[in-house]
Amino acid sequence: MDNKRKYFRMDVQGMEADISDDIGFCSAHVKDVSRFGICLSELPRKLYIKGNKFLMVVSDQQGHRFKVYAQGRWEEENGFDMVLGAEIKDAPWGWTEFVSKIEPTKKDVWGFVR
Question: What's the pTM value of the predicted model, to 2 decimals?
């Protein structure tokens, strides 16, 4: 499968998301993140969010919490659960700062980090 992503996705550990589809709510594990995307696992299949905008609060073990609006782009069934890839539509500036701190850095030809 070709990686058509514009922004690099980073695998993360210990991040959770509380999600609401305006009807119900659930929690999920965050598998990976980028500035404008997120992959969630262990979502109940009955939650209907694919193609619809939904609200989630993403938190990590250090106590960072971000209120994020996203839109489902793809889903994959995994037993009774599903994995969902979503595009982040609206996030606070703190989310961008958080992701930029965990992004891998690139060095230019002179050895400076960009």
Answer: 0.82
